[in-house]
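Please, structure for the following, as tokens.
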Amino acid sequence: MNWLKKNSSCNLSSKKHTNFVILLFSMSLLAACDEHNESNNCDSTKFVDTGLQENLKVTLDTYLDANQDNNEPGLSIVIRKYGELVYRGNRGMANKLSAVAITNDTGFLLASVSKPFTAVAVMQLYEQELLTLDDKLISFIPELSNTWKDITIHHLLSHQSGIPDYINDDRDFQRINEWTNQDLIDFFTTNIDLEFTPGSQGDYSNTGYVLLAEIVARVSGESFGDYMQTHIFTPAGMINSYITSEEVALREDDALNFADRDTYTNHGIKLYTYGGGGQVSSANDLSMFAQAMSNSKLLLEETYTLMRQTHSVLSIVGVEYHFGYGTFSTPLGEKFSHGGRFDGFATLMEIDTLSETEIFILSNAGCAPRVNNIKRLTLEYFSK
């Protein structure tokens, strides 16, 4: 099947692009991530709304002055407009135990913002004709059940596989404590029930992206971490990015969860899975990635366009989202965006190719509303 030809004619119902829609979309991204409950230290009512100021720098600095203590876990922000840097800021501590402050080069666990990077890796192999989007999952991971024979790469990328989400579905966090990618594969070789017929609907699944990372490794002949370093991080100039695993721990100057621990606070566990999460990057690195994508350093423009098109509609905690390949999509296909949240980490990457707006926010303070408020103020400033 020619996916470029098939999907380029997608006729979505609405072509109208309004600032209100942009705002609602961007505010919703963090609700569609790894873990849907908000951490205990997050009270959205405690934030002071400082409003718009004379310029974007003063607007965001004023908000941070009122809402972020430099001695507590914090955040890193980079914003670009029309290809130019318009804001770079950071507040708070990466590691309170060793008194390491957050900078724009501080690495944060991205949570689900890892997924766009995994998708780019898959699409690089697609461009090299090392796999097709119609290829079957079990042709790459044959130890999985033959009852999964209809699941394709396309289904995994667009969350249409029907495979249960190992994080969100049964929420048995102690069962997945210290899980690796191989532990996940071993589990699903015997737990083979699907939630629905592959391709019949969409449902967000972290599991699918762990399996995609394994496919990248098996097809390329490299470990997933080595592949990402060689083919994405280095070409893009992402000097503070890497993949964590059971063998690769957080670096000493990277952000800890709530700035004082390397376990997930709400559940006291560690996860060593990657593909759906597990990537560490800095805000500066995310900006470098966006530039590499826009300059076709990582993928051809037609492939990048294919990724941004709507391939499925997902229902997440009762809200419908359009999804492409590794990215939440919008009617015009201009967004390459994803949010991430797992306990202490709340992350957001949004690349808008139409308005030429790029916003990157990484936090270890366990509170998505703080990230969303910065996003809201930025979009309100640009739309005034």
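The radius of gyration is 20 Å. The domain at 17-67+86-330+342-383 is CATH 3.40.710.10 (Beta-lactamase).
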